[in-house]
Amino acid sequence: MDAIIELKDATIYQRDNIVLSDVTFSIGKGEFVYLIGRTGSGKSSLLRTLYAELPVYDGTVNVAGFDLTEITRKEIPYLRRKLGIVFQDFQLLDDRDVEANLEFVLKATGWYDEDEISERIDLVLDKVGLKDKRKNMPYNLSGGERQGVAIARALLNNPDAILADEPTGNLDPETALDVLKMLLRIADSGTAVLMATHNYGLIQKYPGRILKCENHQVVCSRVE
Fold first, then answer.
1. pLDDT-based confidence at 35, cuts 50/70/90?
2. Three-class HEC string of 127-156
3. pLDDT value at position 185?
4. What span, in angstroms and rounded, lies between the C-alpha atoms of 63 and 50?
5. Fold of domain 1-82+192-224
6. 7, 49, 103, 217 — which has fewest CB within 10 A?
7. What is the mean pLDDT of the chain?
8. SS (H, E, C) the chain
9. Beta sheet of 83-87, edge-to-edge order
10. How many CB atoms are located within 10 Å of the residue 99 CB?
11. What are the domain boundaries of the chain?
12. Residue pLDDT, tens place only, 145-198
């Protein structure tokens, strides 16, 4: 399995504080992995390190073909084009409709042809079952639909991996399950997914590989 994310003996820092040490794991193409741990255990810091918001000083961290120990500031936007990032609070622009939210991201990442932009928006909205919501304003969507749009946004540049930080945290149980199923389908299509969650009910319904942050370490396990 080709590794999209690979860490070896890495130290994860938050400012000058060591959050996690001796971190070693890899995630392959199309693999779905849960990231769990108590609040403050280092989950978000680990994700922020993977998309180069926090620097890497020790060990080896390779993400989507980039060596994060040597990445330059100019290279970071190119790394992030290979990653889809999904947040708990959606981070949609409320002053424009779904189509304009997605168009904004595409144009910001180098898309210019209007027909290609429209086709790409159709494709990603279809993947999350929201093609009919293209002209809706975000505030007229349910929480699950807004998170679906956020996932569609993360898919725009055909990323190698999705990093999802508590994507079901603000959703009711049924909607959370729908979002999880959406991410599992994305993994099945070949995109690696690393999903941080506190929702152990989801893991029980859809068991899989787990990375657990505890005692400043990352422990690998699997629930069948």
1. very high
2. HCCCHHHCCCCHHHCCHHHHHHHHHHHHHC
3. 93
4. 7
5. Rossmann fold (3.40.50)
6. 217
7. 92
8. CCEEEEEEEEEEEECCEEEEEEEEEEEECCCEEEEEECCCCCHHHHHHHHCCCCCCCCCEEEECCEECCCCCHHHHHHHHHCEEEEECCCCCCCCCCHHHHHHHHHHHCCCCCHHHHHHHHHHHHHHCCCHHHCCCCHHHCCHHHHHHHHHHHHHCCCCCEEEEECCCCCCCHHHHHHHHHHHHHHHHCCCEEEEECCCHHHHHHCCCEEEEEECCEEEEEECC
9. 83-87, 161-165, 192-196, 32-37, 209-214, 217-222
10. 17
11. 1-82+192-224
12. 999 999 999 999 999 999 999 999 888 999 999 999 999 999 999 999 999 998
Tell the residue number behind the tokens 């949609």, with chain if given. Answer: 92
Tokens representing 103 are 């168009």
Per-residue pLDDT for 1 more than 80? no
Work out whether strand 209-214 and strand 32-37 pair parallel, antiparallel, or are unpaired.
Answer: parallel
User: pTM, whole model, 2 decimals?
Assistant: 0.91
8 A C-beta contact, residue 186 and residue 193: yes
